Amino acid sequence: MAAANSSTRVVDLDFDTIKTNLKTFMKGQSAIRDYDFEGSNINVLLDVLSYNTYLNNFYLNMLSNEMFLDTALEKDSVVAHAKELNYVPRSAHGAVAYLDITINPDDTPNSITIPKWTEFQTSVDGTSLVFSTQDEHVIKPSTDASTNTTVYTVANVAIYEGRTIDEFAVVDASNNYTFTITNANVDTRHLTLKVRESQTSTVNSTWTKADTLFGVNASSNVFFLEPTTNDQFKITFGDGVFGRKPAQGQVLEVQYRNSKADAGNNAKKFSSADTIQGYSSIILTTVTNSTGGRVAEPIEDIKFNAPKAFQVQERAVTAEDYKIIIQREFPEVKNILAFGGENLTPPKFGKVIVAVDLADADGVPETKKTAISDFLKKKSPVGIEAEVVIPDFTYIESNIDVSYDVTQTNQEPESIKSKAQTALTNWANTNINSFDSIFRNSKATAAIDAADNSIVSSQIVNRPFKKLQPTNVATTWKLEYNNVLDPDDKFIDGISNKFYKPAIESSLFTYDTSSDAMFIDNGEGGLIIAKLTAAGNYQVLKTNVGTIDYTTGIMNINSITISTYVGTALKIYGRCKSKDIKTKNASILQLNADDLTFNITQERL
Asked: Cα(167)–Cα(233) distance, rounded to whole angstroms?
């Protein structure tokens, strides 16, 4: 028998090294001599042994990888590990849109009912889509004040993308009293289950989905949803102690939407797929374009979310808990911030303020806020109320001076501008455009400087601003800049704009008979309405229209009627003392490409 060779390595995995190790081992014996001759029979056997060892090494390496959540590559393996943490990966989500629905009947019914699952049609990029209601809506007649006619209208109706699918199965011991849903694109949020006593029976009972065993007893009509292989989901039932076990021969009826995930986003125009209660004159007005469509949770997201969901344990206590459970249930939420109501002015004790920002959408519909609030009621501690609010956006206007060395490049100024703009917007998307962010001027200029080797310097002058959309109705506003403002000396009527730099300055709007009016501060904490003469001098139109606290950055505008304004929004700019701009509480810093002005200078060094 050959003696062990101490130079043999057992940790190498590639074919050539394995064969070399076998040859090294063979050097310790004298019975076989031609193992190192490529044309010998024993060398062929060494190839076979090396190949077999290589395959075993590969198999065992992959197998060991699949045994752990962090290293698993196959989704079925990742899902299996997530189940051990009691985590159910997110299914595909159909997009949701909100409609105002008006029905014009040819008679005067007491009410018109829009049933659950009522379908509407649309298309996005040539793809036909079906949306349907999730709830039943009963419309009572009302009077249109402008036409003095009877109308049947319901506002903000949520409709979800996905074709309605019905699946049936007979309970049998052969399937271990489980039911696997056929379609991988099932949207499990609105899945319903009914159980009939037999195939001939018309009486059924509705079973509800349970997420935990709390409150579940032997008579509870509940089912559990768990992931299985091939991106599918499986319905399981209780064991007769925690949850009722269906009897053999009973019929399961599962109803759900089979969605097209993110392909359903940004649908704008809808039409009715059929009559509603026999009426065909249906007017649909889109309140919110469809958003929120998501593919089933990918592998990397499951790896990231499963341990955090296990940490949360289906309850919201800390701010991070709120973030985890909301983004798990509502993946369309892009940014989220949770903080105690005691941090508000005035404080709201016993409340948790949850500010949410949706992806690819402006604002948050009331129906979505209600859905999030209702969801949080089941997760929050007793005595704590979650209040969902819309973020307060603070936008940034930036004037950027960029100098580059023409001896280092043959690029035109427009090319340098494009690179600098891309660098700044990418930096903003990573570092701001979210809650709890700070615009660090030095970091932003460093990002621009790194955009091209020829850029030698850059300077940024920022002004935060707020957007208002007056509606020709007397309105008051409270604006929070969350930064210390930099007032000039006391304002004097008729002073030139060359000598007075206001801390507050707005874009132009129409006030009284002046179409070029603007808000400015007077340097002493007061807000006035003024305009610029042809000579560039300020002319006061109205005083005492509001107040500014330069230290806190809070501005209050008294009740005022603004009929029209320039642009899509009335912008009110602030001039800060610091080059760095901060946010506070439910405020998001937003830097958009449309608010950037670049001045490119060529230098020869």
From this structure: 13
pLDDT of residue 1: 45
**Residue 358's CATH number:** 3.30.300.200
Between the alpha carbon of residue 251 and those of residues 35, 177, 199, the distances in Å are 69, 11, 6
Summarised one tens digit per residue, pLDDT across range 165-193 is: 999 998 887 767 888 999 999 999 999 99
Token representation of residue 362: 């402006």
* Strands (E) located in 365-500: 385-389, 392-405, 438-439, 455-468, 475-480
In a domain, 203, yes or no: yes
| Residue 174, number of CB atoms within 10 A of its CB | 6
Closest CA to 273 of 119, 94, 111, 107: 119
Q: Which domain holds residue 371?
A: 315-390
Query: Which of 572, 339, 554, 589 is closest to 440 using CA atoms?
Result: 589
Q: What is the mean pLDDT of the chain?
A: 88
* Residue 546 near residue 555 (C-beta atoms within 8 A): yes
C-alpha 189/C-alpha 184 separation (Å) is 14
Extract the tokens encoding 338.
């949770």
Give the C-alpha distances (Å, rounded to integers) separating 106 from 111, 190, 273, 277.
Answer: 13, 34, 19, 12
Percentage with pLDDT > 70 across the chain: 96
CA–CA distance, 315 with 377 (Å, rounded to integer): 10
pLDDT number for residue 497? 92
Alpha carbon of residue 156 to chain centroid: 21
User: Do 247 and 322 belong to one domain?
Assistant: no
One-letter identity of residue 476: T
Q: How far is CA 147 from CA 139, 141, 250, in A?
A: 19, 14, 55
Check whether residue 267 and residue 334 sit in a common domain: no
Look at residue 32 and tell me whether its pLDDT is greater than 80: no
State pLDDT tens for residues 327-346: 878 877 888 888 888 777 77
Number of domains the chain contains: 5
CB 550 within 8 Å of CB 503: yes
Residues 116 and 194 in one domain: no
Q: Which amino acid is at 133?
A: T
pLDDT by residue (tens digit) across 67-90?
A: 999 899 999 999 999 988 888 999
The reported pTM is 0.64
Q: How far apart are CA 136 and CA 127, in angstroms?
A: 27
